[in-house]
Structures are given as structure tokens and as C-alpha cells.
Amino acid sequence: MNLWAALPSDVRAEVDRCIARRRRVQAIHVVRTSAEGAGTSIRDGVDLVAWRMDVLAGRLEPRPARDLETLTGRAERPAGAPPVALHLEWDGDTSGRTLVLTLVRARPDGDALPTVLAVWREDDGAEPLATAAALADRLGVPLHGPGGDGPAGWAG
Questions:
Q1: What CA–CA distance (Å, rounded) separates 50 from 56?
Q2: What pLDDT score was predicted for residue 109?
Q3: Which terminal CB of the chain, N or C, has fewer other CB atoms within 10 Å?
């Protein structure tokens, strides 16, 4: 890619560090805010980062664990507010559709304190719904979502 070749080595190294940590948006920001990347469109930044993710595929940090035991541990961590609900909602980005599992805690002042516990790609099948339902049961809180706005043919 011509843009990649035009970037100085320190910018390329920072982009690769962001990508290795799976921080695509930060990597695009690094490209676009460098002097050589100034004026780069978001689309070109997305394409560059997607290309580098393919190149660095073997060096990417593993995705966080999303099994029931790990998610239970994250949800039960003391945060000064009890969990009151789980939300499983569809979201999307330049890489496709995702399901996002959010834990909601009630703060003493009545405000909600949301915490993202897990993210699944749409091709993960029924695993997100089964895991979220089991976690809600274990925590004794209701599970809301994901509703019928998911992709056609979703197994959930």
C-alpha cells in the first residue's frame, strides 16, 4: 500500500502496536494524525488497518475470554453497586455486526453504571445468547435483548 510506505517507521510501529492490541480506531487515528497521513480518508484508514490486521494476524492479542466463569468473575467484581440487569444488543462497525453484552449496576444516586462484559461477532451463532442467559440466571438479574434486529438467518 502506498500510504503505508509513505508513513515514517515510528508511525508504522505505533500503528502496529495498536493493531496488535486490537485497537483499530486508535490505529486509524495514528495514521490520520501523522503529517504523512493528514488528509487520509477514514475509508482509506480502515482499509490500511484491515490490511495490517491480516499481515499481523499471528501477533494479535487473543480476544478476552467469554466463557461463563470468566464473565461471572468480571460481573461479581466489587464495583460499589449491585448488578441489576444484563443487556445483549446488536451493534456494528466496519468489520460487521456484533452482539455486545453489558452489565448494568445501580449506583446509590439512582444512575445506571453500564460495563461492557463481552463482544461477539455475528458469526458466533447462538453462543452469545446462551452465555448471556446463563450469566443472568447465575447473577439473578433479568436479561434484556437482543431483539429481532439482528442479521437475517442469525441462529439466536
A1: 10
A2: 80
A3: N
Number of other residues whose CB lies within 10 A of the CB of residue 77: 9
Please tell me whether the overall predicted TM-score, pTM, comes out greater than 0.70 for this model.
no
Beta strands 112-121 and 96-106: pairing type?
Answer: antiparallel
Give how far the C-alpha of residue 26 lies from the chain's centroid of Cα atoms, to the nearest Å: 13
User: In this model, does residue 149 exceed pLDDT 70?
Assistant: no
Return the closest-CA partner of residue 117 out of 93, 152, 141, 95: 141
Decide the pairing of beta strands 143-144 and 83-93: parallel
Mean pLDDT, residues 104-110 = 82
Q: List the CATH code of the domain at 68-144.
A: 3.10.450
SS3 72: helix
